[in-house]
Amino acid sequence: MVDGERRNMSKRIICFSLGLSEEDVEKGRASFYSLNKEAPALEVITISKSMLGLKVADVLANVFDGSGLNAAQVQKDAEDQISPELYKYRVAVMLAEEREEVLKIMRSFKAVLPDPQSIIFAVITETALNWTFGDYIEHLGEEHEYMKNRNPGK
């Protein structure tokens, strides 16, 4: 990521969601701000069908520079919406300057949403930047299943 993008990032927190309703997002956001009154802006962007084929880095670049992909327009296009049945889990993938901000988002959303153990929370890593959202979400689902089903005794 370019230095300018990192500076812009420090003023806001980006969270890409999949399988969370508008009501879920609003409940989570309200919970986050009630516990973190001085927190930077939390921008939640719903992952659309068209975003699944795009690299995470490309979508982030468009979010930060405001060109190309307009998240608000994409979210309003009903044909581009993903059916909740398409993915087994709800997903929140975050980009924040501080680790503590990520933990606060997780705690806030888990506190107010039903069935919080079915929500996959992840941070956008350097490796993830080169993956498409579809590949990244599939990978997160595989990791989640592994962690749920593994035997810690082995």
Describe the model.
There is one protein chain. With 154 residues, this protein is of the alpha/beta class. It has one domain. It is 47% helix and 16% strand. Helix 2 links the parallel strand 1 (12-18) and strand 2. The protein is globular and about 45 Å long. Residues 1-9 and 71-75 have low confidence and may be disordered.
Please report which band the strand proportion falls in: under 5%, 5-15%, 15-25%, 25-35%, 35-45% or over 45%: 15-25%
What is the count of helical runs? 7
Task: Report the mean per-residue pLDDT as an integer.
Answer: 81
Radius of gyration: 15 Å
**Helix fraction bin:** 40-55%
Number of domains: 1
Quick structural overview:
The chain is of the alpha/beta class and 154 residues long. It has helices at residues 3-9, 22-35, 49-52, 56-65, 71-76, 99-112, 133-149; strands at residues 12-18, 41-46, 90-95, 119-123.
What key attributes describe this structure?
globular; alpha/beta; 154 residues; 47% helix; four-stranded mixed β-sheet; 4 strands
Secondary-structure topology with pairs:
Layout: H1 3-9, E1 12-18, H2 22-35, E2 41-46, H3 49-52, H4 56-65, H5 71-76, E3 90-95, H6 99-112, E4 119-123, H7 133-149
Parallel strand pairs: 1-2, 3-4
Antiparallel strand pairs: 1-3
